[in-house]
Each structure stands twice: as structure tokens, then as C-alpha cells.
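Tutorial handout. Part one gives the primary structure; part two gives the three-dimensional structure as C-alpha cells.
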Amino acid sequence: MKRKNTLWSVIVYIGIICSVLFLAGFGLGVTNIMSPGSVPFTEKPQLATPEVPENANPEEYRIVALGDSLTKGTGDDTGKGYVRRTMEKLSKEQAHSVTLVNNLAINGLRADQLAERLKEEHIGYSLKQANLILLTIGGNDLFQGAQSEQLSSATLNIEYLNKKADESISSMQSALKEIRAWNKEALIVMVGLYNPFSNLTEMKTVGNQVVERWNHAAQEIINKDSNMMLIPTQDLFERNIGKYIAADHFHPNGLGYDAIATRIVQSLP
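Part two.
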């Protein structure tokens, strides 16, 4: 009988301990819910841009291309555009090692849109790896939507085009500052504008004037940085508009892109 009483005492004792543990756990759970700040949490990991890889070959051209459809190569049946053609000429004709880090061009891009995109971290990551940055911008700002068979009064208005040019120049300057902020040392090569409608009587004079205005302003901005250069193209296309322009009457064809690439390579130090 005594043994039976002892067993019941053990069972009651264990029950009391379990009840105490349950109440303690319940109380802690309520505390965590009511006062979550009292419970230490591990900080959320922050995603960081990877470290820029070190260049094993300082003599290699590491190219990042930016800008609009000209940098994409639109109009070139081979798809090379001036970027790939520049790489081929540097490699085959001058025996340089060349790597395309990234081509970040977008069809239809305007200068203000480029300046905004250059604030993005992933673009900066690409730019940091380059020692040669190729750029086209401005053509869409001046001539976007203009068609040889649909020339409007606005298209032919020099005051209107000059206003668009001035807005584009301001955005282009902002874009160049953003590029330089990401990469202090790379050579920045911007391809100048040409008038794609210079063989049309009604657009030759007006188009040439606004293109010259834009190119002149761009040259003044670029002259302030010893490691930037502007590649002129207006003279190339004005003399060879029928030979160098694609069927869309706006973009260069393969020959036009090759002429741009040749001039870029000839201008590199």
C-alpha cells in the first residue's frame, strides 16, 4: 500500500513539473507575441554588388557600350554594328586583345532616359570593369518619329528643333557625369550625330543646323575631360548618305557602321 502511495506521489510530482513548464512556455510565447522587440533577431542580409574582378591583362581593351539603337547595331544586316566592327578592327588590324564586357544599349533611348538608367547599380558594375566606353545618344531626341514621307511642321521648325537639342545636350551632360562617377579612368568615346535626312531638300538645311548645334555643344563638354573624345560622323554621312544609310532612312547600314568603326579605331591613342 505504501508502495502504491509512493507511485502516486511521483506521478503527481511529475504532473506539477510539466504544468509549470507548460505555463512558463506559454507565458514566454505570449511575451514574444506582445513584445516582439524584446526578442533579438538576426539582421536581414544585404545583397551587395559583387567585387569588380581584377584585370589580368592591362593592355586589353575592355569595352562597355551604352546608348541607343546605333549602339545596338540596328540597320546592319550582319548585326555587328559599330561596336563589334570596332572590336574586330582592334583585334585583327592592330592585334589588341579585346573583350566586350556588356552592350547596354536600348532602341529608342533618349539622353534623359540614359542619364536616369546610369543611376542603376548593375550598370555601374559593368562600367567599373571597362577601360573603353562607347556611346551613342541624341539622335532620338532630335529626330525620333521623323519619317521622310511624314515630315511635319514641327520637324521643319528650327526653333523647335533647337529647343529639343538644348534639352538633349543638358541630359547628355548629366549622362557623361554619371558615367565618369562610376569610372574615373576609362576612355569615353561618344559618336557624334549626323543628319539622316540630308538628302531631302526640306530637311537638309534645318537638320544640318540642329546637328551642328548639338555636336558643337557636345564637343565643348567633352573637351573639359582629357579622357573623353567625340567622333565626328556628320561629314561621313553627308557625303555618302545614299551609300551609308539603311533602308529605314535613319540608321546606318553595314557600310555606315564600318565607317564609324574605322574612325573610332583611328582616333584611339
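Part three, for discussion. Residues 2-34 form the longest helix (33 residues). The CA atoms of residues 114 and 175 lie 6 Å apart.
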